[in-house]
Design goal:
Blueprint lengths: L5 H26 L11 E2 L10 E4 L4 E3 L7 E7 L6 H14 L8 E7 L7 H9 L5 E5 L2 H10 L4 E3 L6 E3 L3 E4 L5 E5 L5 H13 L3
Parallel strand pairs: 4-5, 5-6
Antiparallel strand pairs: 1-10, 2-3, 2-6, 4-9, 7-8, 9-10
Helix pairs in contact: 2-5
Length: 206
């Protein structure tokens, strides 16, 4: 049976990350701006992406909307619990960024929207997000509501080459306390840069 050598696997992962970053940058270019800001690898999307809007079910079984998280800085990420690389790595990094905020951590929510509602039941989601911290909320919707939300933020997802695998966009959208889109964090954006951007959004509340 054919097996990847470690060097081949490393090159493959590196290529995948470069392609993901290029796609994200291309998306922002289509929207009119692809300029890195002082927050590191983040891209400014204020005025280029729609405000936060959705109606889904939280991992606690509650019907929630964007208004539920008003006055909170929101980090929106699409993924699924069976993901073996990007999703757990990204959620861990986002949780670390929130912890870097110290006493302001309670004013930030990480919304993890599953792109695999068939397998990600509410109980599965609840156990999964609990491993990353109380600031992470799992969101699940019908295929139709998921498609609507994904289309709103130009997020793509589709079956991967391996059985049970889903290919999906890996950017994180950052919204201010009023639900306005402000930043796009590509794959591998440092936790420190995300925390700095979140701190800036928190400072602008009121």
């Amino acid at each position: 049976m054919f097996r990847f050598r470690q060097a081949d696997l490393t090159r493959f992962v590196s290529l995948r990350r470069r392609i993901t970053a290029a796609l994200l940058c291309g998306m922002v270019l289509l929207l009119g701006a692809c300029q890195p800001h002082v927050h590191g690898a983040l891209y400014r999307i204020a005025g280029l992406m729609p405000s936060l809007a959705f109606r889904m079910t939280s991992d606690r079984g509650q019907s929630v909307t964007a208004r539920t998280y008003r006055n909170k800085v929101v980090l929106l990420y699409f993924g699924y619990t069976h993901c073996t690389d990007a999703c757990p790595t990204t959620l861990a990094r986002l949780s670390r960024a929130v912890r870097l905020l110290g006493r302001e951590a309670g004013d930030v929510r990480i919304l993890f929207v599953t792109v695999d509602p068939a397998r990600d039941t509410l109980s599965v989601l609840r156990r999964y997000v609990a491993a990353f911290g109380p600031e992470v909320v799992g969101l699940r919707g019908s295929p139709a509501s998921l498609e609507t939300l994904a289309r709103r933020y130009r997020v793509v997802y589709e079956p991967g080459r391996s059985k049970g695998e889903l290919a999906h966009s890996s950017g994180v959208f950052m919204f201010d306390a009023r639900g306005k889109a402000q930043w796009l964090a590509p794959l591998d954006t440092p936790a420190q840069a995300i925390a700095q951007a979140a701190r800036g959004l928190l400072a602008r509340r009121g």
